[in-house]
User: Which sequence fits this backbone?
């Protein structure tokens, strides 16, 4: 057999193994499903204000889920404290996106200031705060962790992904702040715990 | 020349730096295009259409590919034309090149805040380096390298949107991850995996196929150039051989000129001693005739178009006088008919043409005990028929088609004789044909039109 043919076979085999391996790891993850603990009783009331913390597109997914669940909501990725009037629940969808912030003409520091003001107002108004993080491990970098650390102490219910909790950051934060906490496998498992906060 | 080359190299190096700078600032220049991708992802989520995600993926892959290609090509130009290639080993150069491009991508991230994909970009980079090593070394064409490299980078960017490869830290930056998350939310993970493969495989294969085609094209062009050079060399050699032939012709002319000169000299010495006026007139007339003959011979030689009315027997006598008949193994049989028509030809050239054919018959190897050559001249309808037949080894059929080609010979001769003969015969409005049978012999037939075919006016104009 020619050397060239052997090389091609090796390359194809490598691609197939990598692909199958990826699929197996995915399956393993799916197999190790965390039993979705829903909140035993609702803690939040409508109307809901869904906002983004970090301006990633994840907020749009949560907004879509809320719409599908028929939860009355206002979707304002850059909501300010004055938008909290006539709102009973504040939902933060955390995910830092450099491009997202650029698109909205804001910076990380400005975003933090906005969040702090929203949290202050929510405490003032005694609003329920739900924090959602649907990103992965790689996305849980310094800036996202900074945003989460800022929001979680004032949060009533935290929903995060199992992948992101690889280093225990989310569970530790929830434990330290004594808040209800749900880990989900992926974005498609979000509906149930999210709905349980309202119904 | 060297100065020009140095200036050109500096120009290319400058272009390389400009390309790198363009690559670095590219995301800032087309910032709106990136924002549009985010809008497309949001749109996909709100309308629940994964088709928008594929559109976003294509835009993202294209923008990343352009940016990486610019940086890569710029780095090639800088590396190749700064002299680094000469001073560093291939391995060191590759490592420096690899780190330089990774550094430029990180710098790009810092300048434009656009996250980069380390795994897929590095993989693409390794493949691109492999291809460049093969392609740029062979073709030295930046355009061809660009065409291939953009395909490689474009192909690898499609891996970023495949949820299947997330475990290998591929597609973890802002936009690819958003596409994947949205895709998973829309239950389009398989669609993204399939689309990623559907673009990655054809483009990567196309890159390798294009590389192979470019390399073989360049090699073919190289071979064509070599062949052209060889052909030129052959033409030069043929020209030299032709020159040598002309020299031979000149020699034969000079030899022929000696005859009338000797006549003139002899008659001149008689003039000095003769007192008889009648004899003086006769000698003077003969000297005049010899001078005319010499003039005619020189004109015939100098001017190809120069032709004169000629008695065929004069031509035959002239040819006979030139033939080498010392060899006892060669028997030349002359069959000269009576009432031969006059012809209208360039005597010297026509004689040389027929002698060439006769010489071919003389030198051709023969398996028989002796060489028998028949030289037949006879009148024919509206002209003169000349036939030269030998009993040599003959010419093989495949070679018979090529005997008129300049330089073609089966007897280790210059291969100019027959070409020259054909040319002269055709210039004099005649025709020539050759028939041959292996081990039996060859027959050359020549037809020359008689003088009756030419009007007086045409003759006077040609003279």
Assistant:
């Amino acid at each position: 057999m020619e050397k060239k043919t052997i090389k091609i076979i090796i390359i194809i085999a490598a691609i197939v193994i990598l692909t199958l391996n990826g699929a197996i790891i995915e399956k393993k993850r799916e197999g190790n499903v965390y039993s979705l603990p829903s909140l035993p009783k609702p803690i939040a009331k409508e109307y809901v204000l869904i906002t983004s913390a970090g301006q990633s597109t994840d907020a749009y997914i949560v907004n879509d889920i809320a719409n599908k669940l028929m939860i009355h909501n206002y979707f304002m990725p850059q909501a300010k404290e004055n938008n909290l009037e006539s709102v009973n629940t504040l939902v933060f969808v955390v995910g830092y996106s450099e491009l997202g912030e650029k698109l909205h003409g804001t910076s990380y520091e400005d975003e933090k200031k906005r969040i702090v003001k929203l949290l202050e107002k929510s405490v003032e108004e005694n609003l329920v705060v739900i924090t959602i993080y649907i990103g992965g491990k790689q996305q849980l970098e310094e800036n996202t962790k900074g945003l989460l650390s800022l929001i979680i102490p004032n949060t009533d219910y935290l929903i995060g992904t199992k992948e992101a909790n690889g280093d225990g950051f989310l569970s530790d934060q929830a434990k330290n702040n004594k808040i209800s906490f749900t880990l989900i496998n992926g974005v498609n498992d979000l509906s149930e715990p999210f709905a349980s906060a309202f119904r | 020349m060297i100065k020009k080359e140095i200036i050109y190299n500096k120009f290319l190096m400058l272009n390389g730096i400009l390309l790198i700078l363009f690559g670095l600032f590219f995301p800032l220049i087309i910032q709106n295009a990136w924002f549009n991708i985010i809008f497309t992802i949001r749109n996909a989520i709100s309308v629940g259409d994964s088709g928008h995600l594929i559109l976003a993926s294509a835009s993202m892959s294209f923008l990343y590919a352009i940016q990486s290609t610019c940086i890569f090509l710029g780095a090639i130009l800088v590396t190749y034309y700064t002299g680094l290639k000469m001073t560093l080993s291939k391995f060191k150069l590759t490592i420096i090149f690899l780190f330089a491009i990774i550094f430029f991508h990180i710098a790009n991230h810092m300048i434009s805040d656009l996250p980069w994909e380390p795994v897929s970009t590095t993989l693409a980079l390794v493949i691109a380096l492999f291809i460049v090593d093969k392609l740029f070394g062979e073709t030295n064409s930046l355009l061809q390298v660009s065409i291939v490299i953009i395909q490689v980078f474009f192909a690898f960017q499609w891996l970023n949107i495949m949820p299947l490869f997330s475990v290998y830290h591929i597609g973890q930056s802002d936009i690819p991850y958003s596409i994947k998350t949205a895709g998973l939310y829309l239950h389009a993970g398989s669609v993204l995996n399939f689309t990623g493969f559907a673009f990655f495989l054809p483009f990567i294969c196309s890159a390798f196929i294009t590389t192979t085609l470019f390399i073989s094209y360049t090699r073919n062009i190289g071979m064509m150039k070599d062949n052209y050079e060889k052909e030129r060399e052959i033409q030069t050699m043929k020209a030299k051989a032709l020159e040598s032939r002309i020299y031979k012709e000149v020699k034969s002319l000079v030899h022929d000129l000696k005859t009338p000169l000797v006549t003139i000299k002899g008659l001149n010495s008689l003039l000095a001693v003769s007192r008889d006026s009648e004899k003086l007139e006769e000698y003077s007339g003969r000297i005049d005739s010899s001078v005319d003959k010499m003039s005619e011979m020189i004109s015939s030689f100098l001017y190809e178009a120069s032709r004169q009315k000629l008695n065929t027997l004069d031509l035959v006598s002239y040819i006979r006088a030139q033939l080498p008949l010392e060899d006892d193994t060669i028997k030349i049989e002359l069959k000269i008919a009576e009432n031969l028509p006059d012809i209208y030809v360039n005597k010297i050239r026509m004689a040389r043409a027929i002698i060439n054919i006769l010489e071919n018959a003389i030198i051709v190897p023969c398996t028989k005990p002796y060489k028998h050559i028949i030289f037949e001249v006879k009148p024919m309808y509206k002209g003169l028929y000349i036939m030269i037949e030998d009993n040599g080894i003959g010419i093989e059929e495949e070679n018979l088609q090529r005997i008129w080609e300049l330089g073609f010979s089966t007897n280790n001769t210059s291969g100019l004789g027959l070409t020259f003969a054909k040319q002269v015969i055709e210039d004099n409005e005649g025709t020539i044909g050759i028939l041959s049978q292996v081990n039996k012999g060859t027959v050359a037939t020549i037809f020359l039109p008689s003088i009756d075919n030419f009007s007086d006016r045409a003759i006077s104009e040609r003279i």
Summary: Confidence is low (pLDDT under 50) at residues 29-36 of chain A. The domain at 48-196 of chain A is CATH 3.40.1190.20 (UDP-N-acetylmuramoyl-L-alanine:D-glutamate ligase). Strands of chain A lie at 48-53, 73-75, 89-94, 128-132, 157-161, 180-184.
